Amino acid sequence: MDLKEWSSDDVTIKIDYDKCIGHSDCVDVCPSEVYELERSKAVPVNIIQCVECCACVEACPEEAIDHSACD
Asked: What span, in angstroms and rounded, lies between the C-alpha atoms of 24 and 38?
């Protein structure tokens, strides 16, 4: 498993890069523009902007995103 992890003071986001195939659904649904695609993989480049709505987790068709607020 190629698991990448990003953290801010309040949030931890983990993305399984073996599952993430760059659909960009997380990028499209995030109201805070937390995500960008880099090399066809989701990256939470603005994690401090996260409002913990869980839209990214719900939108990911590959279930590649694990979000600390959405457990």
From this structure: 10
51 alpha carbon, distance to own chain's centre = 12
d(CA 20, CA 23) in angstroms, rounded, equals 8
Mean pLDDT, range 2-15, rounded to an integer = 97
Here the tokens at position 19 are 């599952």
Q: Are 36 and 43 in contact (CB under 8 A)?
A: yes
Q: Specify the length of the chain in residues.
A: 71
Prediction pTM value: 0.94
Residues in CB range of 71: below 8 A, 6 or more apart: none
